[in-house]
């Protein structure tokens, strides 16, 4: 049963090249927040925390975490803050070598948003192989994955 969804920020929720959120991002997060706890993880960059707060201020994302690097420990800290196990967590990201690999190593479910800069990459080991792949990230697609694969709602 999935209780928490952790989203990567850059190139997952935020299109760096266009300088804007992905289409219908806020709508997706608001709808998902009715059924799941949500968190956003991003690496440190000057002013990024304020930028994220401004973009998501009115949504129901309960936790935005800015870290020096994406690591197993940082993902596990987020899960501990929500009191959920890795097996109760869905990690959504665009980079096989970071979010997907870390998520798989700790036993979470992973969704690769195959879009943009890293979309042509291929998994190089078992940890980089996502559980699910989406080319369009939205509420219907995420909910479809959760329902089709029997990952019950909390």
CATH superfamily: HAD superfamily/HAD-like
Overall radius of gyration: 14 Å
What is the count of helical runs?
Answer: 5
What fraction of residues sit in β-strands? 15-25%
What is the CATH domain class? Alpha Beta
Instruction: Give the name of the CATH architecture.
Output: 3-Layer(aba) Sandwich
Record field, number of beta strands? 8
Summed up, the domain count is 1
Distance between the termini: 6 Å
Q: Stretches where pLDDT falls below 50 for ≥5 residues?
A: none
CATH overall fold name? Rossmann fold
The SSE string, one letter per element, is: EEEHEHEHEHEEH
Percentage of helical residues? 25-40%
Mean pLDDT level:
87
- Coarse shape: globular
* Structural category: alpha/beta
Q: How would you sum up the major sheet?
A: 6 strands, parallel
Widest sheet: strand order?
5-4-1-6-7-8
Please tell me about this protein's structure.
There is one protein chain. With 154 residues, the protein is of the alpha/beta class. The chain has one domain (4-148): Rossmann fold (3-Layer(aba) Sandwich). It contains five helices and eight strands, in the order βββαβαβαβαββα. The chain has helices at residues 25-32, 48-56, 72-82, 96-106, 139-148, and strands at residues 4-8, 14-15, 20-21, 37-43, 63-67, 89-93, 109-113, 132-134. The strands form two sheets. A six-stranded parallel beta sheet has the order 5-4-1-6-7-8, with helices on both faces. It has a two-stranded antiparallel sheet with strand order 2-3. The longest helix is centred in the middle third of the chain and has 11 residues, at 72-82. It is globular and about 35 Å long. The N and C termini lie close together (6 Å). The relative contact order is 0.20. InterPro entries: HAD-like_sf, HAD_sf.
